[in-house]
Specification:
- With about 400 residues, this protein is of the alpha+beta class.
- The protein has one domain (about 10-390): Beta-lactamase (3-Layer(aba) Sandwich).
- The protein has 13 helices and 14 strands.
- The chain has helices at about 10-30, 40-50, 95-110, 140-145, 155-160, 170-175, 180-190, 205-220, 225-235, 245-250, 285-295, 300-305, 365-390, and strands at about 55-65, 65-75, 90, 130, 135, 255-260, 280, 310, 315, 320-325, 330-340, 340-350, 355-360, 360-365.
- A hairpin with a 2-residue loop joins strand 11 (about 330-340) and strand 12.
- Helix 2 packs antiparallel against helix 13.
- The longest helix has 25 residues, at about 365-390.
- The model is unreliable at about 1-30 (pLDDT under 50).
């Protein structure tokens, strides 16, 4: 699910944020001089982040050249002493897609499926609509958002999300997905029309991620959530990620605010499979995910492989946005996540052996800008520290 899909719909997201983050970071910190240690920098950035309008609380995880940091700031509910903790479960929104992409990369390496496979070989029934002329939708088209599938199924969800900041949006989204299951998804998939040759044009599609989760279930003969939890527990030590929650687990879910509404809003409705935006995770889980990404290895390397190169600076891997040529970050991998009551970012920057995860329990049209500014400030501090280290005389 990409509730804030208009923010991160295509490459212009990176271009406009490159400018806005520079402008905002000046206002966020006032200076980019590194503190004596990175922990102090993260403390400052986290404290400044929640001073931004409408932001209530934030959690940050950072892995930098083997060092690990977690910071929580603010109160999740206005007027109540309710700071987030390591046990807090957050809705990570479309960051869920990178988990799905990693599972697909593992399936490719295990020869369970191929990127060139026609997606219809994993579907029951006939889907003559899932092609353009004679060109079928292939698995690589799902991963690179070039399938031509709509953002959301059912289509009426896209109409609701078009006015994302309207106070009615969370309730209307809940109504759309009430009782909406896998059978409904496949019925709607039959009605989709592919308007151009797949593999060419970027069109963000959460529906494509849902279909990818179904394909994983078919090849592994296992439900998606158990596959997700088992894999990331074993390879990354992510012991607390989940899609569905028990009553006890739901009590740990972060309260969240939509737009400028002063009343906490409801969680994101459950989607079929949940692969596109229903994953919940703790900050320590996400720190372990950063470590897993930075460690590399065959699965991570495959998931970071560009599948479509749109221009010299922007590519798509296994749901990862890949940006090159950035003055500060160099080559990096990133994804935004957003639901009606939280937004987050993940950045993987090999140049600095650096991973950053930032999440806040508010979701509005300026939330992403504030988090981008915080991330840019941290990277500026790290870059300054490394530059100073280069010029220090040997001891």
């Amino acid at each position: 699910m990409q509730a804030t899909s208009m923010i991160v719909r295509n490459r212009r997201w990176f271009n406009c944020f490159a400018l806005s983050a520079v402008l905002l970071s000046a206002g966020c910190t006032g200076k980019n001089v590194p503190a004596k240690n990175l922990g102090a920098d993260i403390d400052e950035v986290a404290a400044t982040l929640i001073e931004q309008p409408l932001l209530h609380s934030a959690s940050i995880a950072v892995v930098y050249r083997g060092e690990e940091f977690i910071r929580h700031r603010g109160d999740m509910e206005t007027g109540k002493p309710s700071p987030p903790t390591d046990a807090t479960l957050y809705e990570i929104g479309s960051l869920s897609k990178t988990l799905t992409g990693t599972l697909i990369a593992n399936a490719v390496l295990e020869h369970k499926l191929g990127l060139e496979d026609d997606v219809r070989q994993y579907l029951q029934g006939d889907y003559p609509n899932l092609q353009y002329k004679s060109e079928p939708l292939r698995i690589r088209h799902l991963l690179s958002h070039t399938s031509g599938l709509p953002n959301m199924l059912p289509e009426r969800a896209n109409t609701v999300l078009a006015d994302f900041t309207d106070h009615r949006t969370p309730g209307e989204l809940n109504a759309v997905y009430k009782g909406y299951g896998k059978t409904d998804f496949f019925n709607d998939l039959h009605t989709v029309e592919i308007g151009s040759a797949p593999g060419k044009e970027y069109a963000y599609s959460s529906a494509g991620t849902q279909l990818a989760a179904h394909i994983l279930e078919v090849v592994y003969k296992r439900d998606y959530e158990s596959l997700l939890r088992g894999f990331f527990r074993d390879v990354a030590g992510m012991s607390d990620i989940r899609i569905k929650m028990s009553e006890d687990e739901a009590a740990r879910l972060a309260a969240g605010y939509h737009s400028d509404n002063v009343v906490p809003t409801t969680p994101m409705p459950e989607l079929p499979w949940g692969a596109s935006g229903n994953v919940k995770a703790t900050t320590p889980d996400m720190l372990n995910y950063l470590k897993f990404q930075l460690a590399g290895g065959p699965v991570v390397t495959e998931s970071h492989r560009p599948l479509v190169k749109f221009d010299s600076e922007f590519s798509i891997g296994y749901f990862w946005n890949i940006v090159s040529g950035d003055r500060l970050k160099d080559l990096y991998y990133a994804h935004h996540g957003g639901v009606p009551r939280s937004q987050c970012y993940i950045y993987i920057m090999p140049k600095y052996d650096l991973g950053i995860f930032v999440i806040t329990n508010q979701s509005g049209d300026q939330t992403a800008h504030a988090m981008e500014a915080a991330i840019d400030t941290l990277v500026e501090r790290i870059a300054s520290r490394e530059k100073l280290a280069e010029h220090e005389p040997p001891r």
